[in-house]
Amino acid sequence: MRHIWIAFFCLSSATLFSQQHISGTVRNSDGTRAAYATVLLWQMPDSIFIKGAATDSAGNYDLRQPLQGRFRITATLAGSGTAQTTVFECIAASCAAPDLVFNDQTLQAIAITGRKSVIEALSDRLVFHVASSPLTVGLNGLELLRRSPGVSLDPDNNLSLRGKSNVQVYINGKRSPLAGADLAAYLQGLNATDVEAIEIIASPGAQFDAEGNAGVVNIRLKKNKGIGFNGTATGTAAQGSTPKGDGALSLNYRTGKINIFASSSYSDGIWHSGMNLNSVVADTLYAQQSLNKNRSRNVNLRTGIDWTLSPKHTIGILVTGGNARGESAGNSVNRIQVRATGAASRVLRSDRLGDFQHQNLNTNLNYHFADTLGHTFNLDIDKGFFRNDGSDFMPNTWRNAAETLILEEKTYRNQTPSTIDIATLKADYERKIARNGKLALGIKLSNVQTANTFHFFNVTNNSETLDIDRSNAFQYKEQVQAGYVSCEVPLATQWNFKAGLRAENTRAKGDLTAYKPVNARNVDTSYLQWFPSAALSFSPSWQHNISLRYRRSLDRPNYRDLNPFEFKLDELNFSRGNPFLFPQTTHTIELGYTFKQTYSFNVSAAQTNDFFTNLTDTEQDPQTGRQSFYLTKRNFGSRKQYNAAFSAPVQFTKWWSMYANVYVNYEVLNGDFGGERRVNLRVKNLGVWAQQTFNLGHDYSVECSGWFSSGGLWGAYVNRPQGILDAGITKKIWKGKGSLKMTIGDVLGTAGWHAETRLGTLRTYGNGWWEARVLRVSLSYRFGNEKINKSRDRKTGLEEERGRTD
Questions:
Q1: 94-96/21-27 β-pairing
Q2: What sign does the dihedral 604-665-186-302 (CA atoms) show?
Q3: How does pLDDT run across 402-453, given as a tens digit for each residue?
């Protein structure tokens, strides 16, 4: 009933305030609608700027203004040029402006010479235009996120936004079902040439899934916009600790009402990383040093067809897939020492040789309707699967302190195949309501089934024996039925109100099957939750906008976090899932101010209940009596976050510009696990992200970008300062059809992390690094017809589940 009252309030409040408004449509040269174009209203004959707006997904706009007289309207769209109406008169309460149509010749010229700003500040998000930055050459998707404004990653590749964790990754507007190691593997196989932009949305509305209390990072993949046949080819050679390389090819054929497109990318390289981890229990120090080498060969494919049945109806099929396979090798030395003297009592040497394969395939069927009255309907039907398979061989050797005598040898091997099958149906409807209001309704149905198998073998004299105490299988099924209602209405000339309510009903069941019976309860739960959101904004003029936002969100555990398997890393360290994790809920309120639609300042406060995160704990091996350490995810009591953020572009000269994003974060984390096992942390954090561009003339440009964080929290780990600086140069060649780029990452050699945590008598601290100082040289060439035509932005329904498959 609550969503009905919200819709009623939106409809009724819109009728309380009456003012003049001018509406119209912006079209591309082929007659299709130009979505999200910028529209400006000018009073004639003196060309006085009155008001600005943006078209909706159907290319429609509605400008509210209190004046009567003669006007002209102009429209711009990146990659599409400019358009303007003839001068028209408006004296009635409602006026229809002449249609705005972009011109083909203007589009072609802009397609060749135009260049988007690297960072664009919109009212509800920051947009990082990847293709406009030379520093993105040769990077993969994970590296792109590391370089995005306000985004950081912890050692487990979990994202934080403005120092806040639990960020959801979306692909083309829908949430990915991958997370953690699985998401990292997918992103590492994604080439920067496949990415158009990365959108950073700190306060998503009801149309987004309820998950992601820290916000949403949306990765928009490229799609060629040319008429006729055209494409782009790119190749990159890189040198870090070892040589690496990648290449990409995108093709597009558009004619009449049919558009066929395809893209592929391939990468191959060896990457190195290292870690030092120290664990202190009572008077004993476990000092571990690890080195890892990972070779990965990644192939990604994307192909589809869009068919415009009429100006109102479009259908499309989109198929995406990827395959990543490789080998990994690691070795570690763990010295068990007397803490007071530093003298070693024994040494554990552990090696690991492994191979892995990750496969994914998704098929999307889409129908889109849009008319001239502002009605839109979008339907997505998706079917996808993810297959992960891995095997690790792990010899462990115990030695005396001087490593002159072998005390004990143990060798293990494990196999970890897993499958995730996802089917979704998503429908969204939007229409205009009285006085320039908007009403949106939608539903989503998803069905997820995961199957995880863990085979653990003891290896003796090259003979393998299945360990039934550690081998088992875990199946998890989850069904979610969701629906939302959202509306936006002007309350007065300068006020605007938007409210939404989302409901999600979840049914989850997990079954653990072991070779040896265990006393473990199966997961069987069902819950219905409501997620309200609201935003009130005040715009005294086009230069100033003040907004107040509220949102309740939920974060479910990742699928792998629910898996109760014990993944043994070596004789002393393992990880364990927790099938009884509760979802965490967060209430967030944010006050924001934007100046000239460019400079923004935000302050926010959030409280998370049943907060869950990784925690290092100890236990004794019942057979050997040795102290061991395990990593698992647990629900804490609560987390509070207070944040302030400022972002602004700075134009020093015509040839020198900068974009900076600065945030301050204060976080309080409390957890009580009984006895002295308490967590009570209060941590401050200052973060800075900046990007500078130097246009040197003669088709040369130089870019420098970097970020710095003074510390903060990674779950229950306190992080020390870290940062990175990158630089690159670009030269346009072949009459603008090609470009040659050279970049170097981690110029100062500062990439890495330091962190520590405490739980009762256990203190864990350490540092790690990854291979970030890499020299890259890239060559790209654009061929075919350069006449631009607006492409349809395809968003599938499956990606909303991609965020939880780790």
A1: parallel
A2: positive
A3: 999 999 999 999 998 989 999 999 999 999 887 678 899 999 999 999 898 8
